[in-house]
Amino acid sequence: MTATIIDGKAHALALRTRVAAQVATFRAATGRAPGLAVVLVGEDPASAVYVRNKGKATRDAGMESFEHRLPADTTSDVLLALVARLNADPAVDGILVQLPLPAHIDAQAVLLAIDPDKDVDGFHPVNAGRLAIGAEGFVPCTPLGCLMLLQDVHPHLAGLEAVVVGRSNIVGKPMAQLLLQQSCTVTIVHSRTRDVFGHTRQADIVVAAVGIPQFIRGDWIKPGATVIDVGINRTDAGLVGDVDFAAAAQVAGAITPVPGGVGPMTIACLIRNTYVSACRRDGVEARL
Ligand code: NDP
What we know:
GO molecular function: methenyltetrahydrofolate cyclohydrolase activity; methylenetetrahydrofolate dehydrogenase (NADP+) activity
Distance between the termini: 35 Å
Family: Belongs to the tetrahydrofolate dehydrogenase/cyclohydrolase family.
Domain Tetrahydrofolate dehydrogenase/cyclohydrolase NAD(P)-binding: 140-280
Bound molecules: NADPH dihydro-nicotinamide-adenine-dinucleotide phosphate
Structural class: alpha/beta
Oligomer: single chain
CATH architecture of the largest domain: 3-Layer(aba) Sandwich
Number of strands: 11
GO biological process, one term: purine nucleotide biosynthetic process
Radius of gyration: 19 Å
Number of domains: 2
CATH topology of the largest domain: Rossmann fold
CATH class of the largest domain: Alpha Beta
Helix content: 40-55%
Strand order of the largest sheet: 1-11-8-7-5-6
CATH superfamily of the largest domain: NAD(P)-binding Rossmann-like Domain
Binding site for NADP(+): 166-168, 232
Largest sheet: 6 strands, parallel
């Protein structure tokens, strides 16, 4: 069997196009554009690329991008004061502080300072709690993008066995919550799990967010299963995921490639969350 390749690039483009169309309607109705503020501290080259791409995607969707670049030696107080200004700024619907922050800054304190109703990254504990109890909030962009890709393959997720490999706060845990909300039977596998492939081999859905190149092998996948590979690992052989793609694609029913799978969905979901935030703040119905 050869798996269907899930085209994340095409899905992301379609979502961005839908958001851009709705942003135009929002602007006509409210007389303003949704705004996303992105804060970058320091010179980390990968972070600089992410911030540039996020700014471009924001502008492409017809939204305002407010970019704040601060030197690496910025103090926590200066950063917290900027976050407070952005919280109070009515033109700002979403605030994103690019991680990782320099070691001398308490990243948790900065994330806590962001107004949860402008936390379009969904990293604030209030939004993690809202997700856990099924209340309206913001869901982290990467797992939200994974869910959208999964829903395209499985319009009805209820009852499916899902295994999430990884339990980070930004991917694994919110992914598991989202799948639970969809009535999947969810297992979370992590570094202390005794029999990782015993679990993945039973799963209708495997979401891999481990950070180890090609960790999930082809024979760990149940024939016909759907495999979502969140991993982005830079190796001598280029960019690879957390799944052995060539082997898994022989067994799976559908699989995301790396690159071109989950990655493009993350920014598209950030744009979506910013539009949704603007709608909530202006009391306009979000249509997507
Ligand atoms: P973390 O390093 O925060 O978490 C990795 C998880 O994998 C941990 O929960 C860890 O378990 C688990 N793990 C590690 N080793 C094993 C093992 N041998 N068996 C089972 N589980 C194991 O990573 P992230 O969640 O932040 O990211 C995961 C991957 O996704 C990375 O490659 C990252 O680059 C990528 N990523 C991609 C994004 C995108 O836009 N596409 C966005 C975010 C991340 P434990 O908790 O026990 O240590």
